[in-house]
Amino acid sequence: MVYYQAARDPEDSDLRAHLGFELPPFGGTWDAVGTMAGRSDLVLVDWKTSGRVGPEMLVQMGGYQILLRYGVEVDDKTGKPIEPKAQPRFGITGVHLARFSKEHGDFEHRYFPLAPLPEAFADPNSPASCFARLRLHYGAHAVLKKRTA
Questions:
Q1: d(Cα 135, Cα 119) in Å, to the nearest integer?
Q2: Domain ranges of the chain
Q3: What's the Cα-to-Cα distance from 143 to each of 98, 139, 146, 147, rounded to whole Å?
Q4: For the whole prediction, is pTM greater than 0.85?
Q5: Distance spanning both ends of the chain, measured CA to CA
Q6: Dist CA 60 CA 71 (whole Å)
Q7: Nearest Cα to 121, choosing from 56, 65, 72, 68?
Q8: What gap in Å lies between CA 75 and CA 22, rounded to an integer?
């Protein structure tokens, strides 16, 4: 795997930049973004140490897909945006998940193709669409929790 290093300025590129999204607010830092040898499409690479590969991992990758496409870089200390507004960035075409056992040397690799954004939002079963709906629900649930406390 050849890791993707280019951004607007390749000399000032941070593979693990912390990105945020304003509406609804969320943020994250992925493990790696890369390209496969001989290809130009970008993929997410994520390492897991759980007992299984589950659907929640794909939902998390959907959130990262949104951040990499529309997110703004945020300051790790303040959480404030470094860039003034969201601009389309990178289109992610898939996810490589590698799950490592905590007890043994076992590992599992799985690849999941992702529909491009914004088209993926039209599919209610895409990881990005699931993430967006769950994030909206989470915000509404927090408000209702305060009302009923």
A1: 19
A2: 2-148
A3: 36, 7, 5, 6
A4: no
A5: 50
A6: 15
A7: 65
A8: 14
